[in-house]
Amino acid sequence: xxxxxxxxxxxxxxxxxxxxxxxxxxxxxxxxxxxxxxxxxxxxxxxxxxxxxxxxxxxxxxxxxxxxxxxxxxxxxxxxxxxxxxxxxxxxxx
Length: 94
Known about the structure:
It is a single chain. By secondary structure, the protein is mostly helical. It is built from 3 helices and no strands. The protein has helices at about 5-15, 20-40, 75.
């Protein structure tokens, strides 16, 4: 047994979970299964395996930060439901 009933009760208390007896027995068995599986992973020989932080190699896909010419004001507000000629008019929210 990797985890005891008392440890499950303690974790449930910290998580503010009220477990009845059936839930406590079921949760203890499930956590024990999970911890046994994790413990089995420690049997693997990882001596020549380089540590990794991610399962796949991702590359940052951000574009280079360059200044571009912006949209002319008239074009930006052309489809606005309401404007004052210089900016969007929106309903007051506060």
